Amino acid sequence: MKNDCIILIGPSAVGKTVVGEIISKKTGLKWIDSDIFLHNKLKFQKKEVYELTELQRKKEIEYNIFENLIKKHKNFVFSTCSGLFIEQKPELLQKIEKNLLNCKNVFLLLPSSNILISKEVLEKRLKNRKLEYALSSIEKQMSYFYKISKKTIYTQNMTPEMVAIKVLSATKLAK
User: Fold this and answer.
1) How far separated are the first and last CA of the chain, in Å rounded?
2) For tag attachment on the chain, is the N or C end more exposed, with fewer CB atoms within 10 Å?
3) By the 8 A CB rule, do 125 and 13 touch?
4) Would you say 121 and 115 are in contact if contact means Cβ atoms under 8 Å apart?
5) ∠ at Cα 165 (114, 4), nearest 5°?
6) Rounded to an integer, what distance in angstroms lies between the CA atom of residue 68 and that of residue 126?
7) What is the pLDDT of residues 126-139, one digit of tens each?
């Protein structure tokens, strides 16, 4: 595999982490999950990471992780934290877009092409995880997610394994 990377983007609770882990196991690509990395680096519980006083710090750290990965590594699976794209400074959003230009495997994961159905599915998942605060940003995220992704996969009625296989089929990295 030459310069193979898969970047998974999408709203909170869509399944990026689970799908990224499955893809990593199937391909041998290094898996990096920004939620886990940030949790360990910042020593916060996930819900605390989103507190207003820490939000911009978290975004800047995540952007630095993202930029270093894109520039220094060739083969990896990266499950992004949805917060990387929410209410980000315009100059960082431009840098994100520039860094993604040469990355052909940027997948947007969404439950449905219908935003109302997606919100309903995500709301159930977020409430179960006590992360309802992430719902307010879904509509803001959508247009940007569509702008930077190369491919969209609608995950409703699919298992994480099925989503991973679909991603791999689109990348031609399946073993």
Assistant:
1) 11
2) C
3) yes
4) no
5) 105
6) 30
7) 776 655 555 666 67
Task: Tell me which residue has tokens 């519980």.
Answer: 45
What CATH number is given to the structural domain containing 20? 3.40.50.300
Helix/strand/coil percent split, the chain, to 5 = 60, 15, 30
Q: For residue 43, what is the DSSP state? A: T
pLDDT tens digit string along 44-70?
545 544 454 466 666 777 777 777 777
Q: What are the beta bridge partners of residue 110?
A: 154
Domain total in the chain: 1
Contacts of 171 (CB under 8 A, 6+ apart): 4, 6, 105
Decide: helix, strand or coil at residue 68.
helix
pTM of the model: 0.81
What type of residue sits at position 125? R
Helices 90-100 and 52-72, axial angle in degrees (round to 10) = 30
Alpha helices, DSSP H, located in 84-114: 90-100
Do 114 and 157 touch, CB atoms closer than 8 A?
Answer: no
* Rounded Cα distance, 103 and 66, in Å: 12
The CA distance from 125 to 141, in Å, is 17
Provide the CB-side half-sphere exposure for 5 (13 A, CA): 25
